[in-house]
């Protein structure tokens, strides 16, 4: 997994076994989340979001990983991960790599009409392979399911 286009498989890109992104509990403040994520957030015009962009220098070879942490009254309520594939040659490998990463972390996915879902004690994780250029992974608190 990820051998030709990313860091070694021990990098989980923030998808922790707990079902939390970088082990950030739901309803955590923006300041609390910033302390948990090793990267600096990208500037955002929207005060209710934190944005992170990872690229080649962060281990994302042939793709970019953009994380958007959404807040309601400074409490974390949803996380959207947008993966854009920059080299279509690796599209299938990258898509399968992220799907395998999530399956290894959370077990067998439930297949739906448009996505795959995993449920943990804390979160619902949804995986959408939209095209050969984009993947979307959504994380929501279990109580919102």
Q: Could you explain the architecture of this structure?
A:
- The chain has 145 residues and is of the alpha+beta class.
- The chain has one domain (30-144).
- The protein is 16% helix and 34% strand.
- The protein contains 2 helices and 7 strands, in the order αβββαββββ.
- It has helices at 30-36, 91-106; strands at 49-54, 63-72, 75-85, 110-111, 116-119, 123-131, 134-141.
- A 7-stranded antiparallel beta sheet has the order 1-2-3-7-6-5-4, covered by helices on one side.
- It is globular and about 40 Å long.
**Count, helices:** 2
- Termini separation comes to 30 Å
- Pairing-aware structural class of the strands and helices? alpha+beta
Strand portion? 25-35%
Number of strands: 7
Count of the separate structural domains: 1
Rg from Cα: 15 Å
Q: For the report, how would you describe the main beta sheet?
A: 7 strands, antiparallel
Mean pLDDT: 86
Principal-axis shape equals globular
Q: Helical residue percent?
A: 10-25%
Question: Low-confidence segments, ≥5 residues, pLDDT <50?
Answer: 1-9
Lateral strand order in the biggest sheet: 1-2-3-7-6-5-4
Run of helices and strands:
HEEEHEEEE
Which helices and strands, and how do they pair?
Elements: H1 30-36, E1 49-54, E2 63-72, E3 75-85, H2 91-106, E4 110-111, E5 116-119, E6 123-131, E7 134-141
Antiparallel strand pairs: 1-2, 2-3, 3-7, 4-5, 5-6, 6-7
